[in-house]
Specification:
This protein is an alpha/beta fold. It has a domain at 229-359. It is built from 20 helices and twelve strands. The chain has an eight-stranded parallel sheet with strand order 9-6-3-2-1-12-11-10. It has a four-stranded antiparallel sheet with strand order 5-4-7-8, with no helix packed on it. Helix 5 (126-134) packs across helix 6. It is globular, with a radius of gyration of 23 Å.
Length: 504
């Protein structure tokens, strides 16, 4: 069935206290999606972030970001007070996330809630104990990793003392005793995160909405996963990385891209039936209705750079697990719905993997208009089994893209989408209309494009440091009129849900 949805990160919600979270504004946005005749809400990864604040460099492939815990819910539960929350400085700019202020103050207010949680003996409740038991396979290692991060004042696990770095059980048992409260605090935060997320997800389901989650292909080098499961990655006997991930030199970068993530040991994982990856996908599929896997090409081929190199020039390409991984995945989790992020260089082998796997890929309209006038991304090249986007979180907004196009590409785009609008707002909406017109079964449009936002609303600019992952929607900015305009697009181009059609 033809459907549509909106891409809108949790961080960008107009929630109080510095960053978007699982608050009333999130529920209001679900209502907006329903009113807009949409079927999906696509979000970005929900994992805890480290330096750089990127959700694609998570500190854990399983844990949730404590910043998304709604403080107002904790107030309602009697774990915090309004005065305590209002007294904290979470940043003064309502349109930008201040991660420094959050880091300095969010954990301290959550710690107050944790103390009351223990005072009320809620840590003895069956629901809490059941959570600890069910999630023990990742939660215990994650909380221990966070305790060790505190012990070493935030230093990477690669710089810890050998006993802790190499997981000597006697040393770890001492950490469990010395940092019991830190471990308990992290248990509490993860419990609150998942309870609040479950409630929001259930509310969306009740409105007929499905949520598309996002799995980063790699994890951060300094992460709970690389420390607790070094066998999954290419480490030597001393648990030091042999190689890191990146991209080879190309026309855009003479020295390539050095991402620095640990690369997977696919030979080991194949012998282990990919248990870590399958656990990861299974956990995410419990949280979301559909999963978008970032950097899908990595399953076909990956680029490994010797650890310690300052550029990506001496890296080498290697084959990934290919179709064997997806056959194993299907055997273990037969009904998983996946969207493959297949953007970038398209080779014969990764194109074959996409076809064999059968997952829908992505078509980004901003990539369609160039000097060739025959791009792979033009709508007449779309098949049904794909997802069309005007742009993604890594693109600038469509308005900013249009404003900065060269004259040839702008004229070609205008002719192709039949736009005679002289103003940018009309041009952007014509561009959105072209996405809806696509034969792709699913159309996803970032919220910023509906609002005709400019560069100020860009989520991420790859290859840059600072200023990313910060844009936020102003409070009370979404209108009934906008919802009805979006609904009209969904109706005209056959993307309105059946129940919405019956309401007409």
């Amino acid at each position: 069935m033809r459907k549509s949805g909106i891409l809108f990160p949790i961080i960008s919600l107009a929630s109080k206290y510095g960053i978007g979270c699982f608050s009333k504004e999130a529920y209001d946005f679900v209502d907006f999606l329903k009113e807009s005749g949409q079927s999906y809400w696509q979000i970005l990864p929900l994992g805890p972030t480290g330096f750089g604040d990127s959700p694609y460099q998570p500190l854990s492939a399983f844990a949730g970001n404590p910043y998304f815990i709604c403080l107002e819910t904790l107030i309602q539960d009697g774990l915090l007070t309004w005065d305590e929350c209002n007294a904290c400085d979470f940043g003064q700019d309502v349109e930008r996330v201040d991660y420094g202020a959050l880091y300095n103050n969010r954990y301290s207010i959550l710690e107050k809630a944790y103390i009351r949680f223990k005072e009320k003996k809620l840590d003895q409740d069956k629901e809490y104990k059941d959570f600890l038991e069910k999630e023990a396979f990742w939660l215990e290692d994650y909380a221990l990793y966070k305790a060790l991060k505190e012990k070493y004042q935030g230093a990477s696990w690669l710089d810890w003392e050998d006993a802790d770095r190499q997981r000597d059980e006697k040393a770890l048992e001492q950490v469990r005793k010395d940092y019991a409260d830190v471990i308990g605090f992290n248990y509490f935060m993860q419990f609150e995160f998942y309870e609040q997320w479950k409630a929001l997800h259930a509310y969306a389901a009740g409105k007929g909405l499905e949520i598309i989650g996002d799995i980063p292909f790699y994890v951060a080098m300094d992460s709970a996963d690389s420390w607790s499961h070094p066998e999954v990655f290419q480490f030597d006997k001393e648990l030091l990385p042999k190689a890191v991930a990146g991209c080879p030199p190309d026309a855009f970068s003479k020295t390539g891209q050095l991402w620095g993530n640990p690369v997977y040991d696919w030979a080991y994982q194949k012998k282990d039936k990919y248990s870590w990856w399958i656990q990861r996908i299974e956990r995410n599929y419990e949280m979301f209705d559909v999963i978008r896997i970032d950097h899908f090409h990595g399953f076909d081929e990956y680029y490994a750079i010797p650890y310690g190199d300052e550029t990506a020039e001496k890296g080498t390409s290697h084959k990934g697990p290919g179709m064997h991984f997806f056959k194993t995945l299907k055997k273990e989790l037969s009904d998983v719905r996946i969207i493959a992020e297949d953007l970038g260089t398209i080779t014969e082998s990764n194109e074959k993997l996409m076809k064999d796997a059968g997952f829908p890929g992505m078509k980004v309209l901003q990539y369609a208009f160039d000097w060739s006038e025959s791009s792979y991304y033009l709508t007449y090249n779309h098949d049904k089994n794909c997802v069309v986007y005007t742009g993604t979180h890594d693109n600038t907004t469509t308005r900013d893209w249009i404003e900065n196009l060269n004259e040839h590409d702008r004229d070609f785009a205008r002719q192709f989408i039949h736009s005679e609008n002289s103003d940018y707002g009309g041009f952007v909406w014509d561009f959105i209309r072209e996405a809806y017109r696509s034969s792709a079964e699913l159309c996803i449009v970032p919220l910023q494009d509906y609002l005709v936002k400019g560069r100020e609303a860009r989520i991420n600019e790859p290859g840059t440091q600072g200023g990313n992952w910060q844009w936020r929607l102003l409070p009370n900015f979404l209108s009934v009129e906008l919802a009805h305009s979006i609904r009209q697009l969904a109706r005209i181009y056959g993307r309105l849900p059946k129940e919405a059609e019956e309401e007409l």
